[in-house]
Design brief:
Length: 212
């Protein structure tokens, strides 16, 4: 399910996504009847950093005030953001890079091989994909390497993440470790998972607003 210009959707419509994103089911109640339907999907959404779209741009073209940006971003509630595993800023790409045939990057075939191997590891070790693993199953013995657990706890406290967001960070960190072909979650895996949640980092918001 791809939703473009996410904040432009009606708030009520967006809030209806919370239940299927959490449980993979949607429950409908009409009068004396109640029905449950499967509703598991991969949600991908896109939005601008502000109403004009230029917040954080080095050309300093954005004239949106902090209040305007806050109201725009607050159209997406915290509980809904908590249920989105990753929110990542995508900077503008220069025209020269777009037109460069030799810009490089990892080949799709190589990415496919790593993803296939990671999925196989998840089924072999946990019997399902990481999205379906119970949180306590991701916290067993020897799950974390070195001081990765302490780093996760410190990051959760610093960012004041909810329990739901903490579990989703843990799932993403486990997946990053699987993609790295590692049995244990390292500190770098946790850091990368946290880095994929830009709306949880106040410094990112401040940086974007200071660009006006």
């Amino acid at each position: 399910l791809f939703l473009d210009e996410l904040p432009e959707f009606a708030r009520q419509a967006l809030e209806q996504l919370r239940e299927p994103l959490e449980s993979g089911e949607v429950h409908l109640a009409r009068a004396a009847h109640r029905a449950t339907y499967p509703s598991r999907c991969q949600l991908v959404a896109a939005m601008n950093p502000c109403p004009c779209g230029w917040a954080g741009d080095p050309t300093d073209r954005c004239r949106c005030t902090p209040d305007v940006i806050a109201r725009y971003r607050n159209r997406i509630s915290g509980p809904l953001l908590d249920r989105i595993d990753m929110h990542v800023e995508v900077p503008a790409i220069k025209a020269a890079t777009l037109l460069d045939d030799n810009a490089g990057g990892e080949a799709s075939a190589d990415v496919l091989a790593r993803v296939t191997a990671a999925r196989a590891r998840q089924y072999a070790e946990r019997g399902c994909l990481n999205r379906d693993v119970e949180p306590r199953s991701l916290l067993g013995q020897n799950v974390f390497a070195s001081d990765a657990r302490a780093f996760l706890l410190a990051s959760v406290d610093e960012l004041e993440l909810s329990a739901r967001a903490q579990h989703r960070v843990l799932r993403v960190a486990r997946t990053v470790a699987d993609l790295d072909d590692r049995a244990q979650i390292a500190q770098t895996h946790v850091a990368q998972a946290i880095g994929f949640r830009c709306f949880d980092r106040p410094v990112v918001r401040s940086t974007a607003w200071s660009a006006r």
